[in-house]
Amino acid sequence: MKDSRFAPLNDWLAPGAVLFLFVLLFSFTSCGTSGSEEAPATAEESSTADTVQVRSYGETPDGSATLFTLRNVNGMEVDVTNYGGIITAIRVPDNRGAMGDVVLGFADVKGYLGEHPYFGALIGRYGNRIGGGVFTLDGTTYELDRNDGDNALHGGPKGFHRQLYEAKTINPEAGVRGVSLRRVSPDGEEGYPGNLDHTVRYLLTDENELRIEYEATTDAPTVVNLTNHAYFNLGNQPTILEHELMIEAERFTPVDEGLIPTGELKNVAGTPFDFREPHAIGARIGEENEQLELGLGYDHNFVLDRKTDYALERVATLYAPSSGRFMEVLTTEPGLQFYSGNFLDGSLTGKDGKSYEKRSALCLETQHWPDSPNQPDFPSTELRPGETYRSTTVYRFSVR
Ligand code: GLA
């Protein structure tokens, strides 16, 4: 399958990118982990709308973490830390105007240092599973750190979700503000070849869009698949079973017992995986279905129906009747992992003392398909010296 992720710069200079470059040129003013000189130094100094607040978020084994609060003119806020590129909060209004946090997470960095299922995290170098924790590239076999039975999951035990990033704020300009995180993942980290220089930008627009832009280059052939692992609950209910989900996908990738794709692309028609029209998640999750049994619910990659190869397009919507919150997902990626929070079991207590029960939130992870390095018929995840990996995902919020 043709992979046009490595399009020439002109292709990438779409209107949004021009705006972004403008912001980049005029707003990036300093390096370091504590934001730009233009960024407000304390929360008190920056309590007005339309800001990037910067504050200390505590110590990690690799140094001090910083928390960035992006706030737009509507009062929508996104909290991001440079530890693991984690989105710790997204505060958006419901249909009565009441602000609420719609993602799972912890109150401070300590929570993220312990065991947790990738709450809000930047996932890399390879999002999702690589079967047997092994792949061969240009004749060399690479053994990865296995952290999911025999498989490698989400970049390994110390994947990007547990790394500290260099951060720069992107101060408000033309309706956009944000933070840019950068790090070089060294050759051999978690078993992956090549020094991977990567940057992730979190941008909040005045259209209530959280836009995440990923970019990476390498000095040796490698594989890359970056995503974000936010757990959403848009409603006022303890589970996400009431949420109505639409995914523009005629096919999905069925899995084996280890949740590794079998290689087949299965039609969703007539199955509980048909979300082409919005369906309540709870409506069919309990049906007798081999794939639902293997996933303990939904934990599958959907093959997105793309109108244009790798253009930014709307691929999914999520609606919570209890709050009226509506979220659209746009991406340049060919796949979407819909995970219905099946492994949450109440053992973790998050923000506001809430314990996170089974299916109390769901993930919509935009990505290349799982195990692509071992599946020659899947879109390629290879990145070579001289190429630039680029990927964009937008989560757009509104109410109904
Ligand atoms: C992913 C996987 C799930 C699970 C979660 C984390 O989304 O697909 O199987 O591992 O991460 O718990």
Structural write-up:
The strands form seven sheets. Strands 11-12-13-14-27-23-22-17-20 form a nine-stranded antiparallel beta sheet. It is built from four helices and 27 strands. The protein has helices at 9-12, 15-27, 109-113, 290-295; strands at residues 51-60, 63-71, 77-81, 87-93, 99-101, 122-123, 129-130, 134-137, 140-143, 152-153, 166-173, 176-185, 196-205, 209-218, 222-223, 227-228, 244-247, 249-253, 266-267, 279-280, 299-304, 313-320, 325-331, 335-339, 363-367, 382-383, 389-399. Mean pLDDT is 90; it is low at 1-47. The relative contact order is 0.16. It is globular, with a radius of gyration of 20 Å. The longest helix has 13 residues, at 15-27. It has a single domain (15-399), classed as Beta-galactosidase, Chain A, domain 5. It is mainly beta and 400 residues long. Strand 22 and strand 23 (325-331) form a beta hairpin. Residues 117-118, 153, 259, 299, 337, 339, 343, 363, 365 line the site of alpha-D-galactopyranose.
What's this model, at a glance?
By secondary structure, this protein is mainly β.
Topology, please?
Blueprint: H1 9-12, H2 15-27, E1 51-60, E2 63-71, E3 77-81, E4 87-93, E5 99-101, H3 109-113, E6 122-123, E7 129-130, E8 134-137, E9 140-143, E10 152-153, E11 166-173, E12 176-185, E13 196-205, E14 209-218, E15 222-223, E16 227-228, E17 244-247, E18 249-253, E19 266-267, E20 279-280, H4 290-295, E21 299-304, E22 313-320, E23 325-331, E24 335-339, E25 363-367, E26 382-383, E27 389-399
Antiparallel strand pairs: 1-2, 2-3, 3-4, 4-5, 6-16, 7-10, 8-9, 11-12, 12-13, 13-14, 14-27, 15-26, 17-20, 17-22, 18-19, 18-21, 21-24, 22-23, 23-27, 24-25
Bound molecules: alpha-D-galactopyranose (GLA).
